[in-house]
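Input record, target 12 of the design panel.
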């Protein structure tokens, strides 16, 4: 099988489950891509798992069932401030490097789900920066123009996904490091609510604010990774259990910047793209509400221009005092500023943070989510060299406040300027709205109609195509008596199900006319190794409540499981007990129940 340019999870997983792709083939292709991309940008990786070890990991996976592992054979990268056993953790500072005795908790969970760690990616040293230029291991660049920054601090993680080298990557986000690089490289950056992903095994930047984040080609992939990696961890001091909070996503209110707060540093193309993003979200059911940005701007100033810089120093204080000379000059200067604050200043800053959290909490009475530019504009590497602090500050204009105010965020592409450089927007919501926020951002991303990553050859996978929730919606494939015009179709109509497409299953399904069924029904079973023409199905979209009621009404021997369509997408669908199905008549050759019933 030829792998797509963007290694989105669902197509790879479907191919592995269908037996047309193996983890070994994935590893070999990924390794070849990494070697080839190094000629364009040699600064993406700090360390990599040796190829022979990757092949051994792939071979171990091939002894297991792909059906049992939600990330079977899926390759991913890890920002090099997160521990991976067997690889050094450097935080982009060679003098700081150490060999971890165990992997971070999130790595353990992802590997247990079948994912394959490919290596550790470059970053702004100690995750201090938004530019991707503060590393002795080189400076990755924007995948569209080598003169421009990749964004940081999760620089290599974003480029690895955008260049099609891995399916997803882990970054970190304290001030926007999981969002800005996504915007600059035409991919998704999901910043979970604080504490939902365990930070045990993470070199802290600001431990009370740090989030491990996810880069992917789609919000569907990013959410799947968060869902699998997330869990409460008693050994992580700021760990929290995700208690999902819903957003009203059929019709909703979204906050936008007022005219006077729309700062793009002179980039009129990005200003126009932001306005287009607002109009697109209106078309998706949203009502724009003007945002008072002043409290958010004040909050952002606490992070670098206020006493919270002391927490950055606290994270590496022993190393700073003994090895200051070994640090990146700009990072060192930032931490030097921490000595200007007293303990009293720190507590004053914390008190002000909590006061501003109260202000922000009241904002949610006026709207449900925020739609903000991810960054005013991308900057060149030369600009950063000439003004390292000012250029970095520019990039955090719309991101720095989010973690201080305990919010979730999801950055998605929002189009390209005439100069060929990407622009992105970020959806911001209250804590624990992670899934619905990703779903809404995914709807926007899908409606944009743009292909993803550097190659721009594939559209993002959607929640609906995945068969999971998308704004509380589920896709269900029906194959028999629930088809339009057949006796049980009324059960879908009463749940206001919407027909999304008529298509076919993957080729390895058989259909049987069940004996003595009233009304007449077929039974669908999957037969590995069988190659047919696929069977006609209708795919309907229901809300999750309606789907739950519908499933509860399904009698034995029928069940609702995962069904693979001809295009490789997985949705929910009707399946039947194989023993019962095979007691009937094999009607696979007819192509589907509708054709069979016409005979």
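The sequence produced for target 12 reads:
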């Amino acid at each position: 099988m030829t792998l797509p340019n963007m290694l989105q999870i669902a197509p790879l997983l479907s191919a592995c489950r269908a037996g047309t792709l193996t983890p070994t083939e994935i590893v070999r292709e990924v390794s070849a891509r990494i070697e080839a991309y190094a000629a364009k940008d040699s600064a993406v990786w700090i360390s990599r798992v040796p190829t022979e070890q990757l092949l051994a990991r792939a071979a171990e996976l091939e002894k297991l069932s792909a059906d049992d592992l939600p990330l079977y054979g899926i390759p991913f990268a890890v920002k090099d401030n997160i521990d991976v056993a067997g690889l050094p953790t450097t935080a982009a500072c060679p003098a700081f490097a150490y060999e971890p005795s165990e992997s971070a908790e999130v790595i353990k969970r992802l590997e247990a789900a079948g994912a394959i760690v490919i290596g550790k990616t470059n970053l702004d040293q100690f995750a201090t920066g938004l530019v991707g230029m503060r590393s002795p291991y080189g400076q990755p660049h924007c995948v569209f123009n080598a003169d421009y920054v990749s964004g940081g601090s999760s620089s290599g993680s974003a480029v690895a996904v955008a260049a099609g080298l891995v399916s997803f990557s882990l970054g970190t986000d304290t001030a926007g490091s999981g969002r800005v690089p996504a915007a600059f490289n035409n991919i998704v950056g999901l910043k979970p609510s604080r504490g939902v992903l365990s930070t045990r095994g993470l070199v802290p930047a600001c431990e009370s604010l740090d989030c491990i984040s996810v880069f992917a080609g789609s919000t569907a992939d990013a959410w799947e990774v968060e869902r699998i990696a997330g869990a409460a961890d008693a050994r992580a001091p700021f760990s929290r259990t995700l208690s999902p909070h819903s957003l009203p996503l059929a019709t909703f209110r979204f906050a936008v910047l007022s005219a006077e707060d729309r700062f793009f540093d002179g980039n009129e193309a990005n200003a126009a793209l932001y306005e287009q993003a607002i109009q697109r979200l209106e078309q998706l059911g949203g009502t724009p509400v003007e945002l008072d940005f002043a409290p958010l701007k004040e909050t952002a100033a606490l992070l670098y221009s206020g006493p919270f810089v002391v927490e950055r120093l606290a994270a590496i204080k022993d190393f700073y005092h003994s090895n200051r000379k070994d640090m990146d000059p700009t990072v060192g200067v930032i931490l030097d500023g921490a000595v200007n604050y007293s303990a009293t200043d720190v507590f004053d800053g914390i008190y002000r943070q909590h006061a501003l959290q109260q202000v922000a909490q009241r904002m949610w009475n006026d709207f449900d989510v925020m739609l903000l530019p991810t960054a005013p504009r991308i900057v060149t590497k030369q600009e950063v060299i000439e003004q390292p602090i000012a250029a970095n500050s520019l990039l955090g204009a719309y991101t720095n406040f989010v973690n201080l105010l305990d919010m979730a965020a999801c950055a998605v592409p929002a189009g390209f300027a005439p100069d060929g450089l990407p622009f992105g927007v970020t959806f911001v919501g209250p804590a624990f709205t992670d899934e619905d926020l990703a779903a809404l951002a995914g709807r926007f991303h899908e409606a944009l109609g743009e292909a993803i990553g550097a190659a721009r050859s594939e559209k993002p996978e959607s929640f609906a195509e995945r068969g999971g929730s998308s704004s509380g919606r589920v896709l269900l494939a029906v194959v028999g008596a629930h088809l339009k015009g057949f006796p049980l179709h009324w059960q879908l109509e009463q749940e206001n199900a919407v027909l999304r497409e008529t298509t076919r299953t993957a080729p390895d399904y058989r259909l049987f006319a069940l004996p003595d069924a009233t009304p007449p029904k077929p039974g669908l079973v999957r037969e590995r190794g069988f190659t047919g023409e696929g069977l006609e199905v209708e795919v309907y979209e229901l809300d999750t409540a309606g789907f739950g009621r519908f499933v509860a009404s399904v009698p034995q021997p029928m069940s609702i499981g995962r069904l693979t369509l001809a295009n490789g997408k997985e949705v929910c669908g009707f399946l039947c007990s194989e023993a019962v199905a095979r007691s009937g008549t094999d009607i696979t050759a007819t192509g589907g129940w509708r054709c069979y019933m016409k005979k």
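The longest helix spans residues 343-363.
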